[in-house]
């Protein structure tokens, strides 16, 4: 087998090198690796996994090359060797792209003694010892350590080694630093003292968030300029997850980050496998064309931090495959060059092989969907970073409900909304975009006026972009309601009653009411608005003898309209997404699915029948349409590690044939077989015999 990727080799050392860096191996060395690990084993791993790019430990906290920068700690086991250089040479001999990893988050005692100003300080004025290794010191990310000392290391690595990029891990700091430099510079820039809490309502906290963004933005620009001054084709690549889109200026990422690296290495606690691919949608919600890489750890990612361990092969392969389903480039990471447990190698190689099979299709196609969930960036920016996951419950609930319905959908950031980006979709979902500016509301209103369909729930439009409560529902005219009471709760024992016959309340035969929400707003309907569900005023849940409704259903629990422009709207004035995410009731999943299908107004372009839970993605070019089917049907879907894969049986995938086209052929790209199909009433129906982790249909139009 030829292990040199010809596309990657053709772009070596060019400004577009990153476009062919599509499968990554990362090796994070530990201090005694220079005398313990086998470089040849790793070079063989590069080959087995068909990797065409590597990220290798170089310096920062520990140098793995003979650095000459004063106070740059070099591994005491290195002697006359150069482990970083040896791996760089081995990768380049295979025609691979090379990125050097640095980690500036900690220093040893000698550096701390020489430069105490490099150490981060807590709110009580104490220099910060490292939380996991107390003999070390945590660095201040905002001062001279990152802005004077680290650039010398960056320049040395770039100058002395044949690399394409510097990759920085743990570079953004660890919260507020109260060192004298930060106190002085923050006060001078903002007029505030440093905040003592992370309360987003505190003006000092909001000012600090902006100041931090500015300081780190300038740091990224400066490091990137330092790299390019030595190697014009190269870049500085900061480790940036989905959260970073809320913490850094979009213009900075656009200019200085040619591709994005998501450091979401695996599942933690109760977390579904589809979280891997969700990262792709979130990045694409803002940067539609930018390559996105997903880092996968070979060990469990639980809080107990077994970083030098191996999880199950099925878990590794599933995490990689779900990222691939949504267009993410695979990257695996191994901590420690010594390999006492090799059970991870084959699953990584198998996972990467799936990407090889789909590589040509990915190169020719782009993601497409009829449905988009708004990523409420404006809202989430008003939450502290540690609290954002809880603030995303409504979005996560809608996300999972659509997966259960086997519907393909994308994200669209509210900060990237334009008329053009909205018009790519037939249905826009605002699960709980509570903070929207007047300009954002205007874009949504104009989208509806052009015939687009909208679904909104919970507190959407309740506040402006700063978090200030609005007097009226900003989009009430679109949804045909006036809000008469702001959201209240949490309440218990709430219900909603079916009202008349309507597509949104279909499928509840035998029920007159279903569970309601825990946070409720009151609305009154405008003429022309229908109410397929009405609110039942909540009533006591104890004593048990008191558990009965006190009043008849009144007020809209779901409001629907058909607009003059031909679109449809659905408004749900309670937390249906969040409560579904918490409880996973089938009735709420059905309600969300019914609302989406009603808003579409027609059968979905891609419709899938079969007994399974699938995460679906659709991609297309002028002559091709691909449907990716990731199999979530597993008892460990919500809690890893996955023990084994449970293949599902026959599925039928129905796709609208474009006007003026015919079906030239259909293939199953993972199994490598032709697919059986027939054309019925303008739709092509493709039979998929079985799905293991992943299968992909490729349709070619004549």
CATH topology-level fold name of the largest domain? TIM Barrel
Overall 3D shape:
globular
Provide the residue-averaged pLDDT. 94
The fraction of residues assigned to DSSP E strands is: 15-25%
Characterize this entry briefly.
The protein is built from 20 helices and 31 strands. With 702 residues, it is an alpha/beta fold. It is globular.
Descriptive report:
This protein has 702 residues and is α/β, with parallel strands linked by helices. It folds into three domains: 6-173 and 216-363, Aldolase class I (TIM Barrel, Alpha-Beta Barrel), CATH 3.20.20.70; 371-600, Rossmann fold; 608-701, Golgi alpha-mannosidase II (Immunoglobulin-like). Helices cover 29% and strands 23% of the residues. The chain has 20 helices and 31 strands. The strands form six sheets. A nine-stranded mixed sheet has the order 13-12-14-15-22-21-20-17-18, with helices on both faces. The chain has an eight-stranded parallel sheet with strand order 7-6-3-2-1-10-9-8. Strand 9, helix 11 (313-325) and strand 10 (329-335) form a beta-alpha-beta unit. Helix 6 runs parallel beside helix 8 (203-230), helix 10 runs parallel beside helix 11 (313-325) and helix 19 packs across helix 20. The two termini are 34 Å apart. The model has no long low-confidence stretch (mean pLDDT 94). Pfam families: GHL6. This is Beta-galactosidase trimerisation domain-containing protein. InterPro entries: Class_I_gatase-like (IPR029062), Divisome_Glycosyl_Hydrolase (IPR052177), GH (IPR017853), GHL6 (IPR028212).
């Amino acid at each position: 087998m030829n292990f040199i990727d010809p596309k990657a080799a053709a772009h070596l050392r060019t400004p577009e090198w990153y476009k062919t860096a599509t499968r990554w191996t990362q090796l994070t060395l530990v201090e005694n690796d220079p005398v313990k690990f086998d470089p040849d084993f790793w070079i063989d791993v590069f080959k087995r996994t068909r990797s065409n790019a590597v990220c290798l430990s170089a310096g920062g906290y520990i140098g793995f090359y003979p650095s000459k920068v004063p106070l740059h700690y070099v591994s005491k086991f290195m002697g006359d060797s150069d482990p970083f250089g040896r791996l760089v040479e081995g990768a380049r001999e295979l025609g691979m792209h090379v990125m050097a990893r640095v980690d500036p988050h900690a220093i040893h005692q000698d550096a701390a003694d020489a430069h105490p100003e490099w150490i981060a300080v807590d709110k009580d004025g104490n220099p910060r010892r490292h939380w996991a290794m107390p003999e070390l010191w945590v660095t201040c990310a905002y001062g001279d350590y990152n802005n004077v000392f680290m650039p010398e290391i960056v320049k040395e690595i770039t100058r002395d080694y044949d690399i394409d990029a510097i990759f920085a891990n743990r570079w953004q700091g660890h919260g507020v630093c109260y060192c004298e430099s930060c106190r002085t510079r923050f006060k001078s820039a903002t007029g505030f003292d440093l905040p003592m809490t992370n309360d987003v309502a505190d003006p000092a906290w909001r000012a600090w968030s902006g100041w931090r963004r500015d300081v780190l933005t300038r740091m990224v620009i400066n490091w990137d300029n330092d790299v390019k001054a030595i190697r014009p084709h190269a870049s500085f690549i900061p480790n940036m997850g989905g959260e970073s889109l809320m913490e850094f200026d979009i213009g900075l990422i656009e200019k200085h980050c040619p591709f994005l690296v998501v450091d979401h290495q695996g599942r933690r606690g109760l977390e579904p496998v589809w979280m891997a691919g969700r990262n792709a949608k979130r990045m694409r919600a803002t940067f539609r064309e930018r390559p996105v890489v997903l880092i996968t750890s070979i060990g469990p990612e639980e809080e107990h931090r077994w970083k030098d361990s191996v999880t199950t092969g099925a878990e590794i392969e599933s995490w990689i495959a779900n990222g691939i389903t949504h267009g993410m480039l695979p990257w695996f990471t191994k901590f420690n060059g010594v390999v006492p447990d090799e059970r991870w190698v084959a699953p990584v190689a198998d996972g990467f092989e799936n990407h090889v099979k789909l590589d040509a299709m990915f190169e020719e196609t782009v993601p497409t969907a009829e449905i988009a969930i708004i990523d409420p960036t404006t809202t989430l920016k008003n939450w502290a970073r540690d609290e954002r996951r809880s603030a995303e419950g409504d979005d996560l609930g809608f996300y999972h409900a659509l997966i259960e319905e086997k519907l393909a959908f994308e994200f669209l950031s509210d900060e990237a909304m334009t008329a053009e980006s909205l018009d790519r979709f037939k249905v826009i979902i605002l699960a709980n975009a509570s903070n929207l500016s007047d300009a954002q509301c205007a874009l949504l209103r104009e989208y509806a006026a052009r015939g687009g369909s909208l679904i909104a729930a919970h507190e959407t439009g309740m506040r402006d972009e700063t978090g200030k409560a609005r007097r009226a529902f900003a989009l009430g005219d679109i949804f045909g309601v006036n809000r008469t009471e702001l959201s209240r709760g949490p309440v218990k024992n709430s219900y909603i009653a079916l009202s008349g016959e309507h597509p949104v309340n279909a499928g509840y035969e035998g029920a007159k009411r279903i569970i309601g929400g825990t946070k409720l707003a009151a609305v009154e309907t405008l003429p022309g608005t229908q109410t397929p569900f009405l609110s039942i005023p909540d009533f006591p849940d104890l004593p048990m003898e008191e558990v009965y409704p006190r009043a008849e259903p009144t007020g809209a629990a779901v409001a629907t309209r058909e607009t003059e422009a031909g679109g449809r709207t659905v408004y749900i004035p309670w937390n249906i997404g969040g409560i579904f995410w918490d409880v996973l009731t089938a009735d709420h999943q059905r309600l969300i699915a019914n609302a989406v299908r009603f808003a579409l107004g027609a059968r979905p372009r891609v419709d899938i029948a079969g007994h399974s839970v699938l995460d679906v993605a659709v991609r297309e070019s002028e002559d091709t349409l691909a449907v990716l089917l990731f199999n979530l049907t597993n008892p460990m879907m919500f809690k890893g590690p996955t023990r084994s894969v449970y293949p599902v049986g026959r599925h039928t995938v129905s796709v609208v044939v474009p006007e003026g086209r015919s079906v030239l052929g259909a293939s199953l790209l993972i199994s490598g077989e032709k697919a059986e199909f027939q054309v019925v009433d303008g739709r092509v129906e493709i039979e998929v015999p079985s799905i293991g982790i992943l299968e992909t249909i490729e349709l070619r139009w004549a």
